[in-house]
Write a structure and sequence with these properties.
- By secondary structure, the chain is an alpha/beta fold.
- The protein is 28% helix and 17% strand.
- The chain is built from 5 helices and 5 strands.
- It has a 5-stranded mixed beta sheet with strand order 2-1-3-4-5, with helices on both faces.
């Protein structure tokens, strides 16, 4: 093999952009710092978001999706890059990110790492998305970089 594919290089580029966004999160002892970027199938950045960007309870994926009109036709072929697995349950009365992604009709999700059991015993965001037909890819080579924005959390593995 002649090295990483162009598609993989694009994925790394956009995940690094999401990691940069995660560094903007106000630290919270009760929540992860996550960045998200929604990219159209033509390679254009459609929206970005990060945890606690607009509200103490907003997650990165929700912040990014809120910047696009509901039913935006570009979402059906778009990819969302999230530094952490989209949540499958919330402590607050808010729709979990995996469900927001399904509701928006996104075609693909790329994550850097899976949600550990620090706040939720069994996050199944990846499984929910995959079962619904969403393509889910993971970039484990960027997991440590994504975790670095969460150094404020005690007990993070």
């Amino acid at each position: 093999m002649n090295g990483p594919s162009a598609a993989h290089e694009r994925d790394l580029y956009w995940m690094r952009r999401a990691i940069d966004l995660s560094k903007l999160c106000p630290p919270s002892e009760g929540a992860y710092s996550v960045g998200a970027v929604i990219v159209g199938d033509d390679g254009t950045e459609l929206a970005t978001g990060y945890s606690r960007e607009t509200d103490a309870h907003v997650h990165a994926e929700g912040a990014a999706l809120a910047k696009l009109p509901s039913g935006d036709p570009r979402l059906g072929t778009a990819t969302i890059y999230s530094t952490l697995e989209p949540c499958s349950q919330r402590r607050h009365a808010v729709t979990p990110c995996a469900q927001l992604i399904l509701n928006a009709g996104l075609a693909r999700v790329v994550i850097a790492w899976r949600e550990p059991s620090l706040f939720v015993a069994d996050c199944i965001g990846v499984e929910q998305l995959a079962e619904a037909g969403v393509v889910v890819d993971e970039l484990p080579e960027l997991a440590d970089a994504a975790k670095a924005s969460n150094s404020h959390l005690e007990g993070l593995s």
